Amino acid sequence: MIDTRPREECCGCASCEAACPVGAISMERDPMGFLYPKINHEICTRCGLCDKICAFHDVVQRDSDPEALAVRFSESLRKSQSGGLSAALVKEAISRGWVVYGAAFREDWSVSHKRAETLSEAEGFRRSKYVQSDMEGIPSAVLSDLKSGRNVLFTGTPCQCAGIASLAGEKYRERLFLADMVCHGTPSPAVWLSALRRQEKKAGEKVTGVTFRDVEKGWHSHVEAYFFGDKKQVDDAYTYLFYQHMILRPSCGSCPFASLSRTTDLTMADCWGIERVSKDFASDDRGCSLCLIGSEKGRDLLEAVLPGAETLPLDVRKVMQPNLEHPSDLHPLSSSIENDYLRRGLDYVIRRYGNLSLRYRLDRFVAKVKRHL
Ligand SMILES: Cc1cc2nc3c(=O)[nH]c(=O)nc-3n(C[C@H](O)[C@H](O)[C@H](O)COP(=O)(O)OP(=O)(O)OC[C@H]3O[C@@H](n4cnc5c(N)ncnc54)[C@H](O)[C@@H]3O)c2cc1C
Fold first, then answer.
1. What is the sign of the dihedral through the CA atoms of 240, 258, 304 and 272?
2. How many degrees, rounded to 5, is the angle at CA 214 between CA 194 and CA 222?
């Protein structure tokens, strides 16, 4: 049954909850804030649909590499994380009267997927939030839009897109447009909220804005910026735990979607390595998206937005990055870190494993010495 699978085999996409014909599945949060399905066995009829719908092992194999291009929308660069492709696709979809789904902050700065029909409703989708977004109730809403005859653009991680594709099935796939991203892994929602509260405690006031990568410092920047009115507090404690794979969802370590064989119509990513392909393109360090074309309808949607962009067709093999080849390796101490976080809190974890640890400071020192040799 779906609720007896190991944690490593559930990405929390919530499609099983939507698929259950008798409403026996609810999504429950574990202490790290990750959602897992729970079955009410008193009403479950054991039809097996939840197992069938589970997208986690339903991986498409492609024989050839996808067509790829670098793309950037100048007017979006400072407002987006990389080249602004996502916002352009959302704008086009809304102008066509489609429904759009994407990840946005809630009032308490947790992150969830939301539905939008207007540009102002979709504004919050801009920029990557490096935390697992809450999908509860979203697959049902997408299915209901598709059933009522609407076209839907869904943006999200590859596993979230796979869950939606599996739920929609062939019947609705023609009206469903999926745009996923190359994904490093999704960190714990509980740790994210602790990190945010830690900054509020430091500042002695409530956060009024957040960005996970401070684009003012350039596209390559990997520090969080927390805003308190006009004031900005920059910190990399959370980012460090994220990039060291210390706080990722357990299933991220065995993600079956970390390859060039994608299930989606379009794939978006940071075009890391663009400087190896073109010195001029994106030389101003303001951001550049990589786009992989997964289907003909993906290509049609992309072509509609390209007149507003600078583009450069390229060979994807020249801009490969780790998560296009394999999943992130979870940190070997992930379980201890989780236990320590739950028992002793985030400050302890940061001091012991994070950017206040002896190890971190030693590594920084060695790197500095090497730079001066
Ligand atoms: C958890 C995570 C890990 C990532 N890892 C990588 C990586 O290893 N390599 C890489 O090249 N790119 C990665 N990305 C994607 C990258 O950061 C950009 O989001 C992507 O290139 C699109 O940029 P953009 O400028 O077009 O749009 P932006 O405006 O920057 O991004 C907005 C889009 O991202 C979606 N989104 C934002 N946060 C989330 C979330 N928490 N869950 C699901 N969807 C979300 C929104 O729905 C919207 O479609 C990751 C994104 C996330 C959320």
1. positive
2. 75
pLDDT tens for residues 242-280? 999 999 999 999 999 999 999 899 999 999 999 899 888
| Cα–ligand 1 centroid distance for 372 (angstroms) | 35
Cβ contacts of 190 within 8 Å, gap of 6 or more? 31, 32, 33, 341
- Does the structure show a pLDDT above 90 at 227? yes
323 lines ligand 1 (CB under 6 A): yes
User: Contact, 68 vs 314, CB < 8 A?
Assistant: yes
Q: Which residue has the tokens 């949607």?
A: 301
Cβ of 267 below 6 Å from ligand 1: no
Q: How far apart are CA 329 and CA 187, in angstroms?
A: 13
Q: How far is CA 299 from CA 28, 294, 295, 330, in A?
A: 37, 8, 6, 34
- Could you give the domains of the chain? 2-53 (3.30.70), 67-187+248-324 (3.40.640), 189-247+332-372 (no CATH)
Of the pLDDT bands very low, low, confident and very high (cuts 50, 70, 90), residue 197 is very high
Residue 78 has a pLDDT of 67
